[in-house]
Every structure is written in structure tokens, then in C-alpha cells.
Amino acid sequence: MMSDDFSTLWRNNEQASALFYDLLARSEQDAYDDDFLMQLAAYREAAPTSERADIFAAKYLLHHGDAENAAVCAERAYRKRPVNREIWLLLAESYARLDRPVDALTMYGYAYGLYLAPEIPMELLHRGGKEGLDRLSIATGIGTGAPMTQNRAFLTGADHALEFQLDAFVGEYFPLTPPARSARYWVAAYVDNAFLSDQSQLIEEVRHTGVFVDRMQRDYPFCLQKAQEVRGRVTIEVPEGAEVILPIAGTEPLQKLTITTETQPPASAYLGKWAFSQFRLTETTEITPASDAVYAVGTPIRLGHSPARRKLVLNILIDGLAWNIARTRFFDAMPNIARFFARGTIFDQHFSTSECTYPSLPVIETGRYPIHTQVFNERDSHEIPLDMMTLSECMTDLGYYAAAPMGASDSLTCGALRGYDQLNTAAWKLPSAEAADRAIMQLEALDETDQFLYLHVTDVHPWNATGLKFHPAVESHLPLSERLFELDEHIASVRLPKLKIYQEQFWRSLRRADRNLAQLLTYIEEHYAEEEYLVSNYSDHGNSIFSTPVNGVMDVIAENSTRALWMMRGAGVPEGRIVNELTSTADLYPTLGALCGFPVAEDIDGNLPAVFGGKERDAVYSMSMFPGQTYKLAVRTHDHTLRLETQEKVDEDGTVDFADARVGIYPRAHELEENYALDSAELRAFFYPRARSIAREIANNGEFWPAMRKARPEWFESSTKEHL
Predict the structure, then answer these.
(1) Which of 152, 591, 638, 649 has its CA at a distance of 20 to 30 angstroms from the CA of residue 107?
(2) Can 184-302 and 312-624 be said to share one CATH topology?
């Protein structure tokens, strides 16, 4: 129970813990009897919000042959804790018994992808068919890099044995659950001003090689379009007086179609293999292929503007831009962006929820913290629930055509980008020059629609320097002593050290991004009236390359790593404002909801800033919940910061034991400096409830699943032994 005098931040519930381990012992002995039910009822009362009660209930029900209700309990647990081996195996068995082979294979895939066990039943593989194998492929893979995969599942040989191969999902549907009434994504190569089939021929040659899947994935662009695979003749109905743009992709080079309308006599068109082309239709149109080969017909794009919408809503994400640093030389390093947003609102106290991109992007797209999206483990690829409406889904519901001319693949498998009609993605290299050019082409191509566009650029993001090509001006101007360095090639980007070469690369890249994006911003000013557009420019996190380690360890949620960029301009945005109120990356979602007019769910974590008619936050939250590392939390006000770090490491499912967590309150300018540590009843009364509200969502109360811990002895060997 929590103490009420705030003398202690966290106390585990010993009664609940004792009941958990009693139930665990009974379940390991298959003692699913009336006494088990009595203990389970007591546990539910002691820990009413714990998913572990539903796990035990599902185990009991499965033991007694009730797969249907076992699935109900396990699904309820999955909603709260979707990265959990116990839940996956319960759902896998339940779905298999309920004749849901595709769902069962998905759950088996999650478990096998992380733990290489259990063995996937052969009969289930046959029952699941291609859809089951495709879902299995995604489930066994990691959350980044799609549509390429290290683990494409195939049945090979005379005995149809399961094998995993390097591959890419291309020329086919991407196995992602679509929203209601939405077509699925069909994966093509991105082609611009080139021969349509060249890229597909390249992919065909190298799709199963490590050179392509491991290396080229860093900058190889794909185009995902919502489309329907068809064969044979297709009729596209166009209402009288309407006009549409129809994307079509082929599966063969120079795939021939005959197109006919009432006013257009039969004429030929040629498609590229795995490449989309667009056709403008003004009346009902009949498409007749010359062969029986499959082709993909995209969702028709209805032309027309609405006074209820803006002509353009544009989101620009500059990955890894540390605002805490950039703001010190804002007008020098970002003159074009500074000039553009001087006529808008700049948020000076803006913070990311996480230190890296993978958990950060879903926060921006859903308005929910990682503790609620449960997107935090890059080795997992689960989808966020369909009832968590994403930004792109909300904007398409308003009638916008939603497209990402350049986006990262990080949030593809989790579904955070699922509302976009078209996604051009790459896994790593997303240059601002190309992003600006693609955006302008998109604006010119569909200028007769109201567009919601998303750009993700990575120019300023720092990467491990071993094997990296730096900006030419950095390499040519740095003295040799600063050009040479020793660096562990395995250091993650969030922990990169304070090196001059990194810092110079940051400033040069920032100027480069500013110069390139200026082309796009100027185009908007020249082609749109102020009331016709809304532009948001933000970053998903900062970086560590200007930070000094604390006690020899890089502080991954320090202000340099989490103070982020956010500025807006356009219709409804106050002009010439530099806002000092605290804001979070979760706040973009409700802000666009207020400015664009889509409904915002009451249970989101995002807040509408006061400058837009909401209310000021009293605190912002940044957290690191990377499995195998200690959990870290920063709760910041204008003046103070509570810093928390657990003793124990985060488990694979994102839970952690908060008992004996280290907690301190500091002035903002002196975080983690023990000489500046503060303590008072007033400060604790403010910060402790806020920190507890975050911790409560992922606290495991010292209760863990032995099989999960046993699989990670390097993380938990000592704590596991205590409970054996």
C-alpha cells in the first residue's frame, strides 16, 4: 500500500505478492481446484488492476477445457500487457482450440521471436495458410525495418518444414490489421522519375541476401499504398460530377491494361512491376488487363476542397534534434525555420516522453505515453489496439488525404502510421533535401485535395561514428586530434559520448536540414494563404552528444536527450509567440484535434496547451523503459525535477519492481547532482503522487514469471534465485 505521508515513494503490496506466488506454485502443479479459485478471488481483491489475475484465470479455464472464456481473460490481460510470454502462450493455445489458426500463429510468433520457443505446431502452420505464415513472419521479427524482415516464414521441402529466410514484403499485402472500412497496405518500391520496373528487378535479385536486408534497408525506399489486389476486368465507379485519382501497380514489367470509358475509346496503359502509377478519372472507367496477372488497384482519391478543412496540414519531424542545444544558436543554425515560425508559436519548454524514436513516435501519433501504447521493446512487433485512434486515422475521418512522402519504418508494424493512405518509408536514411522535394511533388500532384502530410527527416540524428561518413566540412575542418577517436562500435546512439566530431556534425547537419526545408516552407508561403495551412515542426527526442556522463554513465533522460523541438504556424496558431509553458510530445495529438476539429479521447495522456485554449501542465514526464536496463523517470516542473531509477532491470514485458528505487528531487539545472538534492514535505507531496501514477502502470510488485526471467539470466539471475 502507498503511504499517505509521502515519506516513501513506493511500497510493494506484500499480501498480493504472497497470493501471487501461492497461485504460481499451484499452477506449476496443475492444481486448478476450488482452493485455486479461492486464492484467485483473494488475489483479484488484493490487486484489482493486475493483469496477472487474468493470466491465472485463463490458465484455470484452459485446464478445464474452456478455451472460449480462457481467450476472453487472456485478451483482457493482453490489452494491458501485450509483450508477455505467459499471455502469448495462453492465447496461442486458446486460439488453436477455437479454430483461429492465424491468430494462434501470431501469438506463437511473438514468443518464438523473443525466446526461440516453443516449437510451432506443424498442423497449425498448414491450417493458417499464407496469411498465417505472413503474420508469423511479422510476429517473429523486430519492430523496426519493415517491410524487410530477417524472419520470413516459409514451408520448404517435401516435408514442408518451417524455415525462416531473409526477405522483404513487396508486391503483396503487408500483414498488418487494417482499420475498419480500410483497404490493406500493398507494398511497392518507391519510384520517382525513373523506369518503373528497375527497382523491382533489383529487389528480385537480392531480396534474400544480407546485403539487402541487413544493409540496404538503411536507405532503401518502399511505397505502401492502400489498395486491393485484383485479377481480370475491373470497373471503377465515378459518381457524376466527381473526379478521382486512381493509383495502380503491376506485378509484371510493362503489364498492359486497356482503359475504356463512355467518352474514351479503348486505349493502352502500361504498369511497372511493384510500382504505382496514377490515373485521373472523370467518369466510370473499365480496366481490362491483357493477361491474368495480378495487379493492385489503390483506393480512389476523391478530388475537392472543403471549407471545413485546411488545404494543407503538414507535420515535419526532425529526428534527434536536441532543442536544449539548438535553441542556444537558433537564429544562426536554423535561420529559415526561425524566420518561418517567427509568425507562429514556438514552445520553449517542450519534452519528449522517451530517449529514442521507437517508443516516441507512437506517443506523438496517439497522444499516449509508452506505458499505455506498450511500444517500448524493439524486439517485439505487436500492434496497438485499433480503438486507439491515430493522428492519421483522425485526419482521414475528417476527409483529408493522408500521406507520408518520407517516413521511417519504425512505427509501421505497431500500427501507429496505419491511417495514412500512402506511406513512403525507409528504415534509416531520410534526407531533408529529398523530403522537401517529395513533399512539393505531393502538393503539386494532389493540389485539388485537402492534404495531411507527414515528413520524417534524420539529418541531425547522431549515429555511432564507427563506419560513418561525416559531413565533408566536418572532416575537412576538424584538426586531426579531434578527427581521431576510440569508440566502442556497439554503443547505442542514445549513449554516444561528448565528442567534438559529433557536435560539429550536429551543427552542420542542422544548417543543412534548415537550408533544405526552406524550399518547402517557401513553397507553402507562396502557394497558400495563412488561413489555408497548418505546419508543425517537432522532434521526437534530443541526444547525448553534448552531455557529460554522471558517475561515468550517460544520462539518457537528461534535458539534452529529452528536451525537444516544437513549433507551429498557420490557421488558429497565435503569431509571434514564444511559449514558456511545459509541453510534451503527447500534446501534438490533442492540439491538432482542437485546431483541425477531430474528437479526442478522454483517456489520452496528451494535454491541450493553454495557448490554444487548454490549460497549462504542472509537469512533464520523460521515461526510459528499455528491457534489460533499469527504469528511469524524470518528472519536471519549471523549477524542479524528480528523478527516479529502479534497482532492478525492466523485464521483457515492460514491468519492473519499484521497491528500493532511488528517488531524488533537484533544481532543474542540477539534476542528479547530489550536492543539490532537495527534500521537503511540500515537494514530496507534489512529486510523489505524479511519479506513482506513472509507476503504477508498470510496477510488478515483485511478482514475476519464472520462465521469462530464466530466459534472461544476464538480467535477472540474482533476483530469480531469490524466488526459486
Answers:
(1) 649
(2) no
- Tens of pLDDT, residue by residue over 30-78, are 999 999 999 999 999 999 999 999 999 999 999 999 999 999 999 999 9
173's grid cell: 499485402
Taking only the tens place, the pLDDT of each residue in 139-155 is 999 999 899 999 999 99
How far CA 432 is from CA of 461, 536, 569, 710, in Å, comes to 12, 15, 19, 45
Report the top-level CATH class of 184-302.
mainly beta
Edge-to-edge strand ranges of the sheet holding 640-649: 620-624, 630-636, 640-649, 662-667
CATH superfamily entry for domain 312-624: Alkaline Phosphatase, subunit A (3.40.720.10)
Note if the pTM is more than 0.90.
yes
Residue 217: its pLDDT value, please?
78
Residues 651/653/658/661 CA torsion (nearest 10 deg)? 50
| Cβ atoms of residues 39 and 55 within 8 Å | no
Cα 383 from chain centre: 10
Residue 303 CA to residue 118 CA, distance in Å, equals 51
Spatial separation of the C-alpha atoms in residues 236 and 571, rounded to whole Å: 36
Render 372-418 in DSSP notation, one character per residue: HH----TT--PPPPTTS--HHHHHHHTT-EEEEEEEEGGGTTTTTTT
User: Is residue 314 helix, strand or coil?
Assistant: strand
> Per the structure block, which three cell numbers stand in for 113?
521471436
Contact 699, 582 (CB under 8 A): no
C-alpha span between 164 and 184 (Å, rounded): 24
Domain ranges of the chain: 184-302, 312-624, 630-721
Q: Say how many C-beta atoms besides its own lie within 10 A of residue 302's C-beta.
A: 15
